[in-house]
Amino acid sequence: MWNQRYRWKNRQIREQVSVIDGQKSPTLLLKNARFLHSILRKWITSNIWIHQDRIIYIGEELPKRLENCEIIDCSGLTLVPGYIEPHVHPFQLYNPQSFARFASQSGTTTLICDNLFFFLHLNKKKAFALLNELNESPVSMYWWGRFDSQTEMNEEETIFTNSDIKSWLEHEAVVQGGELTGWPKLLAGDDLMLHWIQETKRLGKKVEGHFPGASDKTLTKMKLFGVDGDHESMTGADVYKRLMHGYTVALRHSSIRPDLNVLLEEIHDLGLDQYDSLIFTTDGSTPAFYKQGIMDMMIDMAIKNGVPIIDAYHMASYNVARHFNLTHHHGMIATGRIANINFLANEAEPTPVSVLTKGQWVKRDGQNLINDEDINWKEFGLDPLNLDWELQSSDLQFSMPFGIEMVNDVITKPYSVSLDFSIENLPQNHEESYFALLDRNGKWRINTIVKGFAKSVSGFASSFSNTGDIILIGKMKKDMILAFKRMKEIGGGIVLAENGKIIHEIPLPLAGLMSDQPLEELIDAEERLKELLYERGYPFTDPIYSLLFFSATHLPYIRVTQSGMYDVMNKTILFPTLMR
Description:
The protein is of the alpha/beta class. The chain has 16 helices and 29 strands. Strand 18 (402-406) and strand 19 (412-416) form a beta hairpin. Belongs to the metallo-dependent hydrolases superfamily. Adenine deaminase family. Pfam families: Adenine_deam_C, Amidohydro_1. Its EC number is 3.5.4.2. This is adenine deaminase.
């Protein structure tokens, strides 16, 4: 049974009380602990008793019995609540377990995660069984319930069904609905989406928006529909507008939007000096970005930008827990809460030297520890990608009168094609490349030209995409086919080919979308891929997000989707996919 909400059994609660009565020993005693008391907003020095996974006492007294108790003298250390990342996409090449393990080492002990990957690729029974398995992690993992796919999918109405959406929303692990990438449908009169929002609110859970560049009127309407928070502020004025309407505002610092310094500077220029409705997020960044840290990085940046120290820590802990109605378990060091505690050298250094999660050490005196079992992903249907079809030369025919031009990492616009693309190889050192999206089941394809991805990438194949369909990019059709064949051989992944050779690959054996390797190893692989792409003319910062968002219809202006070439602004299919 999923027990993330910590419904301790009567026997466990009686045992905790018996420790207070001196009949039993706690499992861990933190003596002389200087810690952040989030209610009093002060640094307090006390003794902290922990029994198993719960803080059971804070005060001046010491336990009467200590025979089975680990005792830590915390003199010289500063303790703060475990950090909470409120907006995690735990499938950006990494997987939920590998990200949770990595995050815990820098003090992020609670994750609130996107369920889109599970919703699209697992049936409900297997998905919920996997949530139960992930619950065994020392890191506390909560989830969203998505309302839409953020792309144009074939037969989407058979995937995002009313019954499945409600099953997710009712699950105890799910604490919010959204994020609302499909909000234009809501504005246009989609009452089913409004019904799901109403159900989310009826269940006492939050709704997360996705409103980049939204006007004041749009923000007003979304608040009336029931949206509680948004993470898409790109300026201080955006933050101010959202706060005016009563939103909780997540300040983002991510691999494609590293905005925190600017946001803090601009909100201070606007005279904003209240932080209770502000939180932090890294918004599902790609692996290498996390070399800098996660919530600890953002706290450090906030302190250096003049945010009062207690507010900086609250924006990564107490404020998040309060927003999600989780303060009875998370976000503070206090009696009855889960024992998620970061041990700092001092309050100005938010990266912890030791980390306690659910009463277990996951980092001790700078030494990283792993104390959960590896998940057997195959048990939940996350096998290596098994493509039972072959790529034919006829699949690489390009004759569309317009292509897609990359404006930045994730925005694409249409442009008129003027070159002859009927040839086998395109000239090097210009910005246009062949582009194909193929159904992972081999049923359909759509071919076009991409301008601005790179100048001299010969063959590139990826099973990592918004929907798990296959992306091919390149100048040389033979190298594109070679990259596809290698991607197929390794059970899915990202492969770069050149002059008849494979020059780099990132295996993604979990459904062709996620790695089973530790995030530290994945960082090295992603950094090498980016180096090779930069050398071949990729002009932006985050090619992994480029792959993910080629099909993402929550961004302008034109997208390559399962339904065909899609005009986002006019909500129309310009060219349908072709059956193979």
